[in-house]
Amino acid sequence: MDRYRTTTTLPFAHLAGATSALRTELHRLIAADDERRVADWSTLRVVGPQEVFGPHGAVHFEYRGSVQFRRLAALPNRAAHSHS
Predict the structure, then answer these.
(1) For residue 38, is pLDDT > 70?
(2) Which of 5, 12, 34, 74 has the fewest CB atoms within 10 Å of its CB?
(3) Ramachandran region of residue 14, left (φ > 0), alpha (ψ -120 to 50) or beta?
């Protein structure tokens, strides 16, 4: 099954903050890709922190997140069922 992936970098190690940021970005990516896809949050994986150097040499903490999606069933077209 396909997974959506993204990363976030924080100036300090904070798993809850990173998870929130990753969830927000993953939700945005999925919604932008296909309005009938939704994240299956039971498959969320967060990896990190990994220490990385920022642009000015400061240590930052990178987290990677991924989630699978599921497709929503199409809703019936109400206009097709209405009578004039």
Answers:
(1) yes
(2) 74
(3) beta
